[in-house]
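User: Can you fold this complex?
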Amino acid sequence: MSWFGSSATETGITHRDRLWLYLLSGLLLAFLVLPTLLVIPMSFSASRFLEFPPQHISLHWYEHYLGSITWQQATETSLEVSVLTSLVATTVGTAAAYGLSASRMRLAQLAGVILLLPIIVPVILTAIGIFYIFVKIKLLDSIGGLVLADSTLAVPIVFMVITAALRGHDPRQEMAARNLGATRFGAFIRVTLPQIRFAVVTAAVLSFLTAFDEVVIALFISGGDHPTLTRIMFNALRNQIDPTIAAVSTLMMFVSTVLMACAFIGGRERK
Amino acid sequence: MKALAAEGPNATELGRDARSERWMLFGLSLPALLLVGLVVVLPIAWLFLLSFQTEGGAFTLANYQRLIDQPSYRRILAMTFEISLTVTAMCIVLGYALAYLLAQLPRRVAGVLMLGVLMPFWTSILVRTYAWLVLLQRDGLINVIGEHLGFWQKPLALVYNMEGTVVGLVHIMLPFMVLPLYNSMRAIDRDYVRGAANLGAGPIQVFWHVYLPLSRPGLFAGGTITFILCLGSYVTPAVLGGGKIVMAANGIAGDVELYFSWGPASAFGVVLLVITLTILFTASRFARLDRIFGGGA
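Assistant: Here's the predicted assembly.
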């Protein structure tokens, strides 16, 4: 009982006094984590209905997913769009973060605020706005249109991650490299980039996930031959809920967790 | 660069070089600015114009007049605010408690538990909404456990209503609250707390007069981002609200999808945007914008 009676804070509150805080925090962590994990056992259920815990284990819903052309095509579309978005957003966002950090103009601050707009403006407005514009320029239901929209949503995230990484970076290192004969671009690639590579990988993963998980814009501008996985899932959630969604959810969680773990391990290795 | 350009015989030339270099560097942000311009600024500008036009293209305020006259729009706006305020208040109370404890744990332990807080960040919002649908439905896990333990006799209606929507939103918003709070609590110098206690302040006084004010930046950033994200939420009310809960974004989408009435939809959109920007602008006078959004990055 000695630990319970010992003081937990500088103000003499004992651990026993704030047992409620430990309990509440434990419950909150469970609240944050458990519901999502629940999807995994559900996906192995043999039943047509949503039941937990599942009575019989089966891979039925995975088979259903793999056998469905709709789900397969949507997965392909989502993966393709996410990879392309990651490439575009990371390149464009890193260039912007680097340029604006180094240029030290007042205009750069304004540009920085403009680059945050995609996450400030409620997504529904962007969605209906580009829906109208994409109809006019014939980008509706196309991979290109999705990449364009998702890249824009990811730009603020890349920009913030890279800007934060560059804050701890000494620009004089690049000047030294250039004095020794490197071009500006060469100096960036060989001196600065290796030092911020963890941030670049994180930005690439986050922008991939931004596109992979995007729902609202996809509802408006994806369809026809190229609906995204999220669009199919959203409609399934609203109409007939069958455990195929649990199987798809489990696979989606697997993809994101592996990617985040890669970024995390990459960051560890750097130290 | 500035120091080099300021003196010496080539001052003008060096100054010109430095200026052109600054512009060149600024130019690196043009592709990103172009994307934002094309995908966000241009569509919003167009929505703005549309909200002041009749179907024939003449200037009108009728779309805004309709927002005031039709009770359905007022109901949607009221519901949006009610839900957003409820969710933000719950996130503040719950998030503060969790962040408070996490900030006092050893960094290693806190780091592991933080993964739990961050996990929702990398799981799709659809996956999480689906999970809640399963948990909260009539014969879902919560109802089964509740009836089994005798808390209630008949299945409770936990989803396809306001309660389900609020639970789903709190689940999504809580990490946005905890993260900035945790960061700002970690930065608090425990010596202040110790000093106040040594000078005779009781636990409540220390918390109220010392700890709470020092954690205010995080509270402020978390509260702002949570509220703004709630105002614009679409997926959670659409799925967990089961058609009964219509928040602003659902109302706007419905106008466009079901009725093709772009005029009222765009006017409502402009109102939503103005509310969001006003809150952000007010908040940015107390905290920096990148701090408000940087919590999650």
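Chain B is about 75% helix and 0% strand. Chain B touches chain A through 89 residues (CB under 8 Å).
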